[in-house]
Amino acid sequence: MVFRKISKDIKNWAISLYNQGLVPRDIRDLLGISSRSLSRWRHNEEVYGSTLPPLEILHKAASERDEELHSGIGLATS
Predict the structure, then answer these.
(1) Is residue 41 part of a domain?
(2) Residues 6+ apart with CB under 8 A from 71
(3) pLDDT by residue (tens digit) across 14-53?
(4) Half-sphere exposure for 23 (CA within 13 Å, toward CB)
(5) Res 17: pLDDT
(6) Does 35 map to a domain?
(7) What's the total number of domains in the chain?
(8) Is 33 contained in some domain?
(9) Is the entire prediction scored with pTM above 0.85?
(10) Structure confidence at residue 58 as a pLDDT band (50, 70, 90)
(11) Of 33, 57, 28, the residue nearest 44 (C-alpha)
(12) Which domain of life does this protein belong to (predicted)?
């Protein structure tokens, strides 16, 4: 899987195309994005009003990942 930064403009364009009735496969092919990314952006737009979740949600997810990583290799978390 290739990770790349996708601009907010592309994300918003993808949501706009979806809202205009284009099917996800066509949006994916047109913009060169994954179906999973489109699905995630649609969810975030619906729940948070933006293609990105609020920063506190991102920080919480990162902290949880750190705790899982540390407990998985036997390190104490602070």
Answers:
(1) yes
(2) 77
(3) 999 999 999 999 999 999 999 999 999 999 999 989 888 7
(4) 2
(5) 97
(6) yes
(7) 1
(8) yes
(9) no
(10) low
(11) 57
(12) Eukaryota
